[in-house]
């Protein structure tokens, strides 16, 4: 995968993997839906989500259009239920494993909403959001885990990540994604990280 045009100029020293918060091995499609992080924010959380538009339909570019405010609300009845919403995520991994980036990791994407985790509220402020093409509770594709493992390793190298959680963990009772179909053990093994990095509910006794 190679970057497309539209990535902003570097805001920090370029590395082999990162340039101004943009990951080298992602397709870049900048979203207008982002903001600045609070001053001196420590970005130490990754939040995993699942998404498909309409729900349960895979393929196409509806998610990309949603994150860039280009979705036609009249295209499908479900879209009318979310009409006008402005959201984004830093990353989106399709079923094929293709990786997209919409917001620099140096900036605040709009993915978590009202949230609280590890004693802090407003998880958008200090987290990186990753959307997986899928439906909450269902299984994800092997290609997605492969891409997620590579991206996760790059995030652990480039940022002081201490926690990886699901949307359901940072917004319990309000969100259910990525759901029971996501294999947390597989992710932990791929990243060679300790169980303390993952949500408490995923840890073996």
Which helices and strands, and how do they pair?
Layout: E1 18-19, E2 22-23, E3 27-28, E4 34-36, E5 45-51, H1 62-67, H2 77-81, E6 91-93, E7 99-101, E8 107-109, E9 116-117, E10 120-121, E11 127-133, H3 142-158, E12 163-166, H4 167-170, H5 184-191
Parallel strand pairs: 3-7, 5-11, 5-12, 6-11
Antiparallel strand pairs: 1-2, 4-8, 6-7, 9-10
The amount of helix comes to 10-25%
Radius of gyration of CA atoms, rounded to a whole number: 16 Å
Rounded mean pLDDT is 92
The CATH topology is given as Lysozyme-like
Biggest β-sheet strands, sense, barrel: 6 strands, mixed
Total number of helices: 5
- The H-and-E topology, N to C, reads as EEEEEHHEEEEEEHEHH
Strand content: 15-25%
- The CATH superfamily label reads Peptidoglycan recognition protein-like
Q: Which CATH C-level class is it?
A: Alpha Beta
The secondary structure category is alpha/beta
Shape: globular
Strand order of the largest sheet: 3-7-6-11-5-12
* Cα separation of the termini: 39 Å
């Amino acid at each position: 995968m190679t970057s497309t045009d539209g990535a902003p100029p570097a805001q920090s020293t370029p590395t082999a993997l990162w340039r101004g918060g943009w990951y080298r091995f992602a397709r870049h499609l900048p979203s207008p839906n982002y903001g600045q992080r609070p001053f001196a924010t420590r970005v130490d959380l990754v939040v995993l989500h699942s998404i498909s538009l309409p729900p349960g339909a895979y393929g196409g570019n509806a998610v990309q259009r949603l994150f860039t405010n280009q979705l036609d609300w009249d295209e499908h009845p479900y879209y009318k239920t979310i009409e006008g919403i402005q959201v984004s995520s830093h990353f989106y991994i399709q079923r094929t494993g293709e990786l997209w980036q919409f917001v620099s990791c140096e900036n605040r994407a709009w993915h978590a909403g009202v949230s609280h985790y590890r004693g802090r509220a407003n998880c958008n402020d200090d987290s990186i959001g990753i959307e997986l093409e899928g439906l909450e509770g269902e299984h994800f594709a092997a290609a997605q885990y492969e891409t997620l493992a590579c991206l996760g390793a790059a995030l652990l190298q480039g940022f002081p990540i201490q926690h990886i959680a699901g949307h359901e963990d940072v917004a319990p009772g309000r969100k259910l994604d990525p759901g029971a179909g996501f294999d947390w053990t597989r992710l932990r093994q791929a990243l060679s990280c300790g169980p303390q990095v993952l949500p408490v509910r995923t840890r073996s006794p």
